[in-house]
Design brief:
375 residues; alpha/beta; 2 domains; four-stranded mixed beta sheet; 13% strand
Length: 375
C-alpha cells in the first residue's frame, strides 16, 4: 500500500465525479427516493473517506493512460524543472501543503476563539430547558443547557463536552421543546463531528471546488436529517408548529446576522427542508439506508481496484540493435534499496545500480521496492 502521484489523481477524479453525481441526484430528489436522507449522508461520507485515503493497494490493477495523460505527467513531474532540482509537481505540492497548513491553522484558531467566547460569556441555567432535555435525551453525557443574551439564535457545539446555547428571550414550553429536539438531534446524529471532519477535508483539498459543494450539500442533508429525527413522533399539527418555530428563528438570524444551525443565507434551502419534512414518512426508511451502505461498499472497492498510469513503449528497432536487450517492466523487475540509500534494479537475476532520479521515476511508474540490500 502506497501513496503515489497516480493514486492521488485517482482519488481526486473518483471523488469529484461522485460528488457531482450525488449532488445532482439529491437536489432532484432521485437519490433520496432510492437511499433515504441518511443513505445520502452515507454516500457523501464515502466520498470523504475516499479523499482521506488516497492509496494504491498491491491488488490494484494498472491501466495505462493515453498520450495526453503521459504528456501531462511528464510535463509536471519530469520534463519541466524550476532551477536544478525542483519540478513543476514539487512546486504544486509545496503550494498544496502550504495552503492546507494555513487553512488548518485558521480553523484551529477560530475553534479556540469560540470555546473561549462561550467559556467567558455571562450565562444562566434554564431549569425548564434542562427538564425538557431530561425527557427527550436517552443517551449518556447529556448536553449542558445555557441561556445567554450573547447569542440571538439557538446553537450547539462540542464533541466531548456538549453544550446547547439558547438566546435570553421568552419561549413557550412548546417552542423550547422543539428547539431542544432539533439541537439534541444534532448531537445524537454526531453532526458536530461530521462538520469538523469536512472542515479538515476542505483544508486538505482546498484547491478542489467539489469539496465545497460537498460541504454545502452535506450540511443541508444533516439539517434535513435533524428535522426528520425531531418530528418523527409528531402528528401533522405538531409538525406544522415545529416548522413555525424553525421559521421564526430563521427570521431572527437574518435580522441579527448571527450564524447558527438554523440560519441559511439561501431561503431555497429552508424551503427544501420544509418540503421534505412534509414527506417525512417517505424519505426516512431503513431499507434505503442499507442500500446506501451496499452502494458505498461496491463503489469503494471499485475505486481502489484500478489506477491509471503512464506507459511508454520503446521502438522495436532500438531494442533489437542490442542482442542481449530485454524489456523491463513492473511485472518482471523490481527495485532494491540499499542501506546507504542507493537503488539497484533487479532484472534477469541481476542487480544493476541506478541513479536515485531514475529510481524515483520507476517508483512513480509502479515498480516495487523491497527490503534493504547488504551490498
Amino acid at each position: 500500500m502506497q501513496i503515489t502521484f497516480f493514486s492521488v489523481w485517482m482519488t481526486v477524479l473518483w471523488s469529484s465525479v461522485l460528488i457531482l453525481i450525488f449532488y445532482v441526484l439529491r437536489t432532484k430528489y432521485k437519490l433520496i427516493d432510492i437511499c433515504s436522507v441518511s443513505g445520502v449522508i452515507v454516500l457523501y461520507l464515502f466520498c470523504m473517506i475516499r479523499m482521506i485515503i488516497p492509496v494504491e493497494f498491491p491488488w490494484t490493477k494498472v491501466i495505462f493512460g493515453g498520450t495526453l495523460y503521459n504528456k501531462i505527467y511528464y510535463f509536471s513531474y519530469v520534463e519541466r524543472n524550476i532551477g536544478n532540482c525542483i519540478s513543476v509537481f514539487d512546486l504544486l505540492r509545496l503550494t498544496w501543503y502550504s495552503g492546507t497548513l494555513l487553512i488548518l491553522s485558521y480553523y484551529v484558531i477560530q475553534y479556540v476563539k469560540i470555546v473561549r467566547y462561550f467559556g467567558e460569556m455571562s450565562v444562566q441555567r434554564n431549569i425548564k430547558a434542562a427538564q425538557i432535555v431530561d425527557a427527550v435525551w436517552n443517551g449518556s453525557k447529556k448536553p449542558d443547557i445555557l441561556q445567554t443574551a450573547a447569542v440571538k439564535t439557538p446553537c450547539c457545539f462540542g464533541i466531548l463536552r456538549k453544550k446547547i446555547i439558547i438566546p435570553d428571550k421568552p419561549y413557550t414550553e412548546e417552542q423550547l421543546r422543539f428547539i431542544l429536539l432539533h439541537e439534541c438531534s444534532h448531537f445524537k446524529n454526531n453532526d458536530i463531528l461530521v462538520k469538523n471532519l469536512i472542515n479538515i477535508l476542505c483544508a486538505l483539498y482546498w484547491w478542489n471546488p467539489c469539496v465545497y459543494l460537498l460541504k454545502k450539500d452535506l450540511s443541508q442533508s444533516l439539517e434535513i436529517r435533524c428535522d426528520l429525527t425531531a418530528v418523527k413522533k409528531l402528528d401533522h399539527q405538531l409538525k406544522g408548529d415545529y416548522l413555525a418555530v424553525i421559521l421564526s428563528e430563521y427570521k431572527d438570524s437574518l435580522k441579527t446576522g448571527r450564524s447558527a444551525g438554523l440560519r441559511y443565507d439561501n431561503p431555497k434551502l429552508l424551503l427544501e427542508r420544509f418540503q421534505l419534512v412534509a414527506n417525512e414518512g417517505r424519505i426516512l426508511g431503513n431499507k434505503g439506508h442499507i442500500f446506501a451502505w451496499i452502494i458505498s461498499g461496491c463503489l469503494l472497492f471499485t475505486s481502489y481496484s484500478f489506477i491509471f498510469q503512464t506507459q511508454y513503449e520503446a521502438p522495436k528497432e532500438d531494442i533489437e540493435t542490442v542482442p542481449d536487450a530485454h524489456e523491463v517492466d513492473i511485472h518482471n523487475s523490481y527495485l532494491i534499496k540499499a542501506d546507504d540509500g542507493s537503488y539497484f534494479l533487479h532484472s534477469q537475476n541481476k542487480d544493476i545500480l541506478i541513479s536515485k532520479e531514475l529510481a524515483k521515476m520507476m517508483i512513480q511508474d509502479g515498480f516495487t521496492v523491497i527490503g534493504k540490500s547488504n551490498k
